[in-house]
Automatic annotation (TrEMBL), chain A:
Family note: Belongs to the binding-protein-dependent transport system permease family.
Species of provenance: Micromonospora rosaria
Topology of this chain in the membrane: Multi-pass membrane protein
Annotated protein name in UniProt: ABC transporter permease
Any Pfam family matching the protein: BPD_transp_1
From TrEMBL, chain B:
Keyword set, alphabetical order: Cell membrane, Membrane, Transmembrane, Transmembrane helix, Transport
Record-annotated ABC transmembrane type-1 domain positions: 100-306
Record protein name field: Sugar ABC transporter permease
Record family assignment: Belongs to the binding-protein-dependent transport system permease family.
Highest taxon of source: Bacteria
Lineage of origin: Bacteria, Bacillati, Actinomycetota, Actinomycetes, Micromonosporales
GO-annotated cellular components: plasma membrane
Organism: Micromonospora rosaria
Classification via PROSITE patterns: ABC_TM1
Locations listed in the record: Cell membrane
Keyword Cell membrane: yes
Single GO biological process annotation from the record: transmembrane transport
């Protein structure tokens, strides 16, 4: 048991600074906003008194003061968004047209590189596989489970178990699944569950994470494992929100459970379905941790977010890394437009 | 509708109970099948985690030679793995205790700052009249779709090189070293959390009753006063929901930490260390299993004890929006 408390003091001191800074900044702003208007109000009052004493018309309200309040309330958030997101996003777009050191303008070369290099084309197709499969499979599983578990005994417990992976970090989940996929030579006893099952069925153990394209599918399983719980919770809530009289009316008409699912349940929860698919798609596009922790992008498993990290932060190729980030952004846009159009249809319909 | 339905159907509708014996049997069967099937699936879903959990308590030589399912035939229990991974001194052990503290130090301010800033911004966007309010809201809303990958390279250079425009230094480099680098991690997490936070909290704040606000204004309350004494107490559930969400996100994050904290033991959180261990010592399962659980346990406790709020937050964010 060797744990040096002194070594940790610096960190805890930083935490203290952070918390003090929080109290000072937020508390300070609120106090400032309290004191300054009070002072203005007192001055206004004094002026009113003076005005009424001299018989002059009272001064009007100051509409611009609302604007000052708004400015103070919005200042921290807007400032941080500008520094942390808006300006960097614009700079990244510019950097994507420049070379690795961000010195010279190279036009579209970085984008050309992306589609000419075989390994990067592979990265793009992998990402596409992820974005198609994960939302599809996770939403389907989530939906089926939500329908099945509805009004079953132990519903809350069963749902908690499915939902639990949401709380586990992608890194933790990757380690959990690497253990499932673990490999030992055929002469040894297997320690990975998957190989054990294969051996029990009379097969040969395999190095699952090392042969493409199967390994990408096995990584996708991890993401599905995490996201299905999210889909299930949202869809289950949507199912419970279907008005009871609709369900009862259908039941009186004698519909089969099959018809009930296709003609009542599914149309009623369509908005929630779209939200789930969109949310999972966007999360999947940006997936990074799983690939990095399991294979580090080797054996043809890399995806755009992972390659972007490698280019920009490991190889110092800022231009190519930025171009990959821009591609990620461009890929998100159609998904979001789709969602906005759907939302608008719902509001009108 | 109820007046015209025959009594038989009303009976069926009341509890959904079929009246014929065959129907009742079939109903009970399907519900029993559904129960069994949903429990089986839930168990299957949990097996990978469970296997790792069991393994983390098995002695190294056992763990590396036999599958975790043999534990039930030949149970051998040890806490050595946790001892090693948390406090061990060797380079190959995890020394995770220190990283655990890093995770805590990173997480707390990274939850508090965006919460406070977003609550204030959401209030202003919902209840203060000023020109360009709608455009500003749409702008912040739209920022949600910018992947944080778009911000990483320039933000890192902002910290390390400062900002200069045409040779004029507008902002000197922050030059943070050692433990000071926590600041840039907090900063980055706060920036990246704000669009979603403002959006979620705005949903709640804007739904507060208008009469309440107007009554307070008529009574002479200023905006800061309304914000503190009326709005904040009323949106506590929303704050809790987003707080949990952000807590899980920051605690579980790898990418932001990797870039802004680096890999050193002074600042890097658990996830970074674990990913590193998985990369360099991928077969040291006695360390990885215990390490994974050290990192999982806090979010799991938060999640299980506050699941209700978390789910509410998820639903508010995804369904209402």
């Amino acid at each position: 048991m060797e744990f040096d408390v002194v070594e940790q003091q610096g960190k805890l001191l930083m935490l203290l600074y952070g918390l003090v800074a929080f109290v000072v900044v937020v508390g300070g702003m609120l106090v400032l906003l309290d004191v300054v208007p009070a002072w203005f109000a007192r001055r206004r009052e004094a002026r009113l008194v003076a005005a009424s004493a001299s018989g002059a018309p009272p001064p009007g309200r100051y509409p611009q003061r609302e604007g000052i309040f708004a400015l103070f309330f919005l200042l921290p958030a807007v400032l941080m968004l500008l520094i942390g997101l808006v300006v960097p996003a614009i700079r990244t777009t510019l950097l994507s047209f420049m070379d690795g050191d961000s010195q010279n303008f190279v036009g579209l070369r970085n984008y050309g590189w992306m589609f000419s290099e075989d390994s990067i084309v592979r990265v793009l197709t992998n990402t596409l596989t992820w974005v198609i499969l994960v939302p599809l499979v996770a939403t389907t599983i989530g939906l089926l489970y939500a329908v099945m578990v509805d009004r079953v005994r132990f519903e809350a417990l069963a749902k908690s178990l499915i939902f639990m992976p949401m709380a586990i970090s992608f890194v933790g989940a990757s380690i959990i699944w690497r253990f499932v996929y673990a490999y030992r030579g055929a002469e040894q006893e297997q320690i990975g569950l998957l190989n054990q099952m294969v051996v029990a069925l009379g097969g040969e153990p395999r190095q699952w994470l090392q042969d493409p394209p199967l390994n990408t599918l096995l990584l996708i399983v991890i993401m599905v494992w995490i996201q299905a719980g999210f889909a299930m919770v949202v869809l289950s809530a949507a199912i419970k929100a279907i008005p009871a009289d609709i369900v009862e009316a259908a039941r009186l008409d004698g519909v089969t459970p099959w018809q009930m699912f296709w003609q009542i349940t599914l149309p009623s929860i369509k908005p929630a379905m779209i939200v789930v698919v969109v949310t999972i798609s966007i999360a999947t596009l940006k997936v990074f941790d799983i690939v990095r922790t399991t294979t580090n992008g080797n054996y043809d498993t890399s995806v755009v977010a992972n390659e972007m990290y490698n280019q920009a932060f490991r190889y110092g190729e800022n231009g190519q890394g930025s171009a990959l980030a821009v591609v990620l952004f461009v890929l998100v846009i159609p998904i979001v437009i789709y969602q906005i159009r759907n939302l608008r249809q719902q509001r009108e319909g | 509708m109820t007046t015209t339905t025959p009594p038989l159907a009303t009976g069926a509708a009341r509890g959904g109970t079929p009246t014929t014996t065959a129907g009742r049997v079939r109903k009970r069967l399907t519900s029993r099948t559904a129960t069994v099937a949903s429990i089986v699936i839930a168990v299957v879903w949990t097996i990978p985690t469970f296997g790792l959990f069991v393994s983390s308590f098995r002695p190294e030589e056992q763990l590396k030679t036999t599958g975790w399912w043999t534990f039930f035939r030949d149970p051998q229990f040890t806490l050595e793995n946790y001892q090693q991974v948390l406090f061990g001194r060797g380079a190959s052990s995890g020394q995770l205790a220190g990283y655990f503290i890093n995770s805590l130090v990173i997480t707390l301010p990274s939850v508090l700052f965006p919460l406070a800033f977003a609550a204030m911004a959401a209030y202003a966007l919902a209840w203060i009249n000023f020109r360009g309010r709608d455009w500003l809201y749409i702008g912040i809303f739209a920022l949600q779709i910018v992947p944080l990958q778009m911000a990483l390279v320039p933000l890192l250079s902002f910290f390390s090189r400062g900002v200069s425009l045409g040779g004029v230094t507008l902002m000197p480099p922050w030059d943070l070293a050692g433990e000071e680098r926590f600041i840039q991690v907090w900063f980055a997490h706060t920036c990246f959390a704000l669009p979603l936070a403002v959006f979620l909290l705005h949903n709640f704040v804007s739904q507060l009753p208008k009469d309440l606000m107007e009554a307070a204004r008529v009574d002479g309350a200023t905006h800061p006063k309304i914000f503190r004494s009326i709005v904040l107490p009323l949106i506590t559930p929303a704050l809790a929901a987003f707080g949990i969400f952000q807590f899980l996100w920051v605690w579980n994050d790898l990418l932001v930490a990797l870039i802004f904290a680096g890999g050193g033991s002074e600042v890097a959180p658990l996830t970074v260390r674990l990913a590193e261990m998985a990369g360099t010592r991928g077969n040291e399962w006695q360390r990885l299993t215990a390490g994974a659980f050290v990192s999982i346990v806090v979010p799991l406790i938060v999640f299980l004890s506050l699941q209700r709020y978390f789910v509410r937050g998820l639903l508010a964010g995804s369904v209402k929006g």
